[in-house]
Amino acid sequence: MMNQLAPPLSLLLLLFFLSTTQAQTPAQPPAPSGPPNITRILEKAGQFVIFLRLMGTTQEANQLNNQLNNSNNGMTIFAPSDSAFSSLQAGTLNSLSDEQKVELVQFHVVPTFLSTSQFQTVSNPLRTQAGDNREGQFPLNVTTSGNQVNISTGVVNTTVVNTIFTDNQIAVYQVDKVLLPLSIFGPQTPAEAPAPVTTKKKKAAADAPSSDDSDSSGGVGLAVNVMVVVMFIGVGVYAAFVL
């Protein structure tokens, strides 16, 4: 009776084989999440609300994502945290024009992929999306000291404090200060004072003779005329006397 209720040996062997095979099958890697998206990367990191808002209002988030999807050059982004923006002087962002806000975001983006090891060999100044990297414009200099990456804009000095995301196309690094470019936040050269203008009217007035000069010249002429008349009368009287 007990032998009839026991499962067949072949069934036990089959169950054992299936369980062993499933245990040895490696876990499948997660499905790719699509092309890199800077907005999703920073949202997942969770401490870049102000930078994300600035990228959104300037339309730079869409611009960068389109560039990532349609270019093979790669990209490096230095992302200031919310605490970095909080350390700015009150009203700094509100004082900027729309164009300056765009340039500020672009100054945090290098249009090539840079790994941490490549920072040791890059040529300074780096050229950012903001454009002109000449002194006084948008120069960005990177130096290394051991494993530390230092960044200088000519206005602020900061360091890379964390790697947020990296693959072969995009690298996103956290910085502890907002990168302020010289072109916007550097000392402004005072405008030269306009040269004094000399009008022709003033010059003509200066060249014209004064009333005193006219009076004096007129007085001299009158005296001469009187002397001539007196001499003429004197000559006539003398001639009459002689005759």
Automatic annotation (TrEMBL):
PROSITE patterns: FAS1. The chain crosses the membrane at residues 220-241. May be a cell surface adhesion protein. This is FASCICLIN-like arabinogalactan-protein 12. GO terms for biological process: plant-type secondary cell wall biogenesis. One of its GO terms (cellular component) is side of membrane. The keyword Membrane applies. The keyword DNA damage does not apply. Keywords: Cell membrane, Glycoprotein, GPI-anchor, Lipoprotein, Membrane, Proteoglycan, Signal, Transmembrane, Transmembrane helix. It comes from the Eukaryota. Residues 191-218 are annotated as: Disordered. It holds the Pfam family Fasciclin. SUPFAM superfamilies: FAS1 domain. InterPro entries: FAS1_dom_sf, FAS1_domain, FLA_A. Belongs to the fasciclin-like AGP family. It is a lipid-anchor; GPI-anchor. It is found in: Cell membrane.
